[in-house]
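Complex 403.
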Amino acid sequence: MKFETFFRRELASLRNEGRYRVFADLERKAGQFPRAMFHGPSGPREVTVWCSNDYLGMGQHPTVLEAMHEALDTCGAGAGGTRNIAGTNHYHVMIEKELAALHNKEAALLFNSGYMSNWAAISTIASKLPECVILSDALNHASMIEGMRHSRAKKVVFEHNNPNDLRRHLRALDPKVPKFVLFESVYSMDGDVAPVREIVEAAEDYGALTYIDEVHSVGLYGPGGAGIAARDGMSDRIDIIEGTLGKAIGVLGGYIAGSAAMCDFVRSFASGFIFSTALPPAIAAGALASIRHLRNSDAERIGHQERVAQVRAALDEAGIPHMPNPSHIVPVMVGDAALCKKLSDDLIERFDIYVQPINYPTVPRGTERLRITPTPLHSDEDIRKLVEALSSIWSMVGLKRAA
Ligand code: PLP
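Predicted structure with pyridoxal-5'-phosphate bound:
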């Protein structure tokens, strides 16, 4: 086989469809978020980032940076191994305690990313529970799907955010088999929020184990940023809460929180936990400082919601169509892969604004979009410039305005 020809042909087909991914070469500037240097074809220049998952700008918060500097100076660079082999650092222990307290759970277990925590925890639990059947929301994240696949457990997909469909599937299963219900709180592409109570009640009625991915809500919603389940008073009724330290917390890492036995079980059996070098202590220290800050300060969350509302109102006024939802994610709908890429290119080339195009397979074909994520650090002027730029491009390419 001509391997190079194969690779090139596959890439060419992505390009033809307009969904070849180009990563913007950005250099973040500490203390100036959402500004970054863009290293483009015509040399470096400053742009405003409108699509970061550093939702609150905590990745550059002085308290977080100070904690990271201090840990770097005291502990050095790497963790020194897997957690098993010399890699457990005091910062890992402290952050696990903090995460357990945040979610009001007995314990927490730290992973190197949210992807790893989903993959490792789901695959371990579902493969070890004898005859386990997974019930998965239709729009669950790729990392959860990989975990399910790796477990080789039987999987049933229920309609997105539909507790009645979940009940229908639960009812059809043998009452004796262990059931494992997996869903998210805030869905990252449409920004819609799960009916947590109704899903958990359905699961409880059939004695199912419950798992919620709170990656897009930790730090942002609920008391002290404990997430949507906590906001809805449901954390205590969910068995496993999973989250990331890489989005609103602003650093890197993932975790699960739940009972001491469940965390110890995953710690003891999950290959994705056991056989991977632990997070550097400075990373854990930064995330710990960020969580502690957000548990004690609502200012970032209030500013965030206020900016989100302002962006939506400005888009409405300009007739730029965006998907309504109750969260902080503002999907501006384009509906065509090549056009979506062109809009993103125009925004950075002509207006110094960076918003990446979101195409298939991240979203279904025909629903391509620009996913805008306002932060408390975007100014009135930033919002005005964003909406003016979008409006000008909308007219230029002849896209339909919202009524
Ligand atoms: N879960 C969801 C719903 C996500 O959107 C993502 C990443 O975007 C992850 C998990 C993975 O988290 P991380 O980026 O920390 O690997």
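The first helix runs from residue 3 to 17.
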